[in-house]
Amino acid sequence: MTLHTAPSPSTPCRLGERIQDVLWLMTLGAAWRGLESGEPITGSQILQAARVPSLSCSPCPDVIVACLEEMLRCDCLIGDPCQGLTITGQGKEVFARLMGEPAASLRIGAGRLAVRVRLAFLDLLDGEARCAALDALIAAAEDDLALLSTGLNESAWSGPFGGSWAVRDMASASQDLRTLGSLRSLLATVAA
After folding, report:
1. Which pLDDT does position 57 carry in this prediction?
2. What share of the chain is helix, strand, coil (3-state, %, to 5)?
3. How far is CA 64 from the centre of its chain?
4. 138 three-class SS
5. What's the confidence (pLDDT) of residue 32?
6. Residue 81 has what DSSP assignment?
7. Which contacts of 77-83 are long-range, i.e. CB under 8 A and separated by 24 or more positions?
8. Which one of 33, 55, 142, 158 counts the least CB within 10 Å of its CB?
9. Strand (E) or helix (H) holding 20
10. What is the pLDDT of residue 54?
């Protein structure tokens, strides 16, 4: 049996998070939280959660259903999507692995949604894994800021209007980095 394959940790895709990876994190995280609360997650809840207004293009139901079917085949989830799904030990391992892998751009594709999903379920990981997952987001935010500042110096951004938008993007990326850094400091304080 082959498990879900996420981007290789050594070469994160700078084009944005794959929506399938975000769906896996969203579903496994929700199933784990449901296990802890005694309320299994249903397929319709996953479909509803994946329709995010801020996501420029939400995944079609076929993609979501295919991900759910793969999670069931791989023994990451057990149950019936109509009655409720429960995460397995293997599902927890896959979830932890995906959370710890390098994040792609936080600003492109499903990147914004990926940040929200990763942060929403960060508490499910233990201390060391939690810090590693947050460090992956911080590294992606640093890469985003570096790419934006490189692009700002290129001649294509020399016009006053394009340059003003690039400066706005840099300010937003800087704020992302500060927010994630503050969360990391908070984790370090709690761990101490």
Report:
1. 59
2. 65, 5, 30
3. 15
4. helix
5. 96
6. T
7. 77/27, 77/28, 77/31, 79/40, 81/42, 81/43, 81/44, 81/46, 82/42, 82/43, 82/44, 83/40, 83/42
8. 158
9. helix 19-37
10. 56
> Quick check: helix, strand or coil at residue 40?
coil
Helix (H) or strand (E) holding 183: helix 160-191
130 vs 49: CA distance, rounded Å: 23
**Residue 149 in tokens:** 């500042």
pLDDT at 132: 92
Q: Which amino acid is at 7?
A: P
| Exposed / middle / buried, residue 66 (Cβ in 10 Å: 0-12, 13-18, 19+) | middle
The whole-angstrom separation of Cα 68 and Cα 57 is 19
pLDDT < 70: residue spans in the chain: 1-17, 52-58, 151-160, 162, 192
Residue 38: count of CB within 10 angstroms of its CB: 6
